[in-house]
């Protein structure tokens, strides 16, 4: 009896109201999904920044320095204790840039091209932040090999990835809007500062 009454009440509800309720439920679920994805992205980012980048970079430097040092006759330069100050400067700026960019992408769909905030200085603020952090780690290790060879090699590989893979995809997705944005804002290093919003 109760089930029949409930079923009858549902049948008497106008279809547009039922559709509105369904759309509202879907919107809430989509928002919850985006929030969960944002939290997962932040957790992965913290792991990459706090674990993978420092320890992977240090391992690469420690492994390659003896070999490259013998070939180039220069490996370390002694700037202790200023290396901690310089490292903190680069690392904190890089980390701030990454999380500043993340705050702009959080909860925003990919249907609109981001051109505000850090994206008005560089088209890839997260990548720029990573490069700054790697420079800081090289200074902390007081390794010329890390600063002048390993970090530039990583930056060049990342630049090629952006230029050859990401940029064509963005041009295909956003068309003339991206071309205008690309002409005003540099790809990685925030050298030109003409584009503002």
UniProtKB/TrEMBL annotation:
Membrane topology (UniProt): Multi-pass membrane protein
Regions that span the bilayer: 43-60, 80-102, 128-161
Any one GO CC term of the record: endomembrane system
InterPro entries: Phopholipid_MeTrfase
Statement: the UniProt record of this protein carries the keyword Kinase: no
Any Pfam family: PEMT
Subcellular localization, as worded in the UniProt entry: Endomembrane system
Keywords recorded for this protein, A-Z: Membrane, Transmembrane, Transmembrane helix
Protein name: Isoprenylcysteine carboxylmethyltransferase family protein
């Amino acid at each position: 009896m109760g089930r029949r009454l409930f079923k009858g009440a549902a049948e008497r509800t106008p279809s547009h109201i039922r559709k509105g309720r369904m759309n509202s439920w879907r919107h809430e679920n989509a928002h919850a999904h985006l929030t969960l994805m944002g939290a997962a992205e932040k957790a992965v980012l913290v792991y990459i920044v706090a674990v993978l980048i420092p320890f992977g970079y240090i391992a690469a430097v420690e492994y390659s320095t003896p070999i490259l040092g013998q070939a180039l006759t220069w490996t370390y330069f002694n700037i202790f204790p200023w290396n901690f100050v310089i490292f903190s400067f680069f690392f904190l700026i890089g980390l701030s840039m990454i999380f500043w960019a993340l705050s702009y992408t959080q909860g925003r769909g990919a249907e609109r091209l981001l051109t505000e905030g850090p994206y008005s200085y560089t088209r890839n603020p997260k990548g720029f932040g990573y490069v700054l952090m790697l420079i800081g780690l090289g200074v902390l290790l007081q390794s010329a090999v890390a600063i002048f060879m390993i970090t530039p090699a990583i930056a060049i590989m990342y630049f090629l990835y952006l230029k050859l893979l990401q940029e064509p995809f963005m041009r295909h997705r956003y068309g003339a809007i991206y071309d205008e944005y690309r002409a005003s804002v540099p790809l990685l290093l925030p050298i030109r500062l003409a584009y503002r919003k």
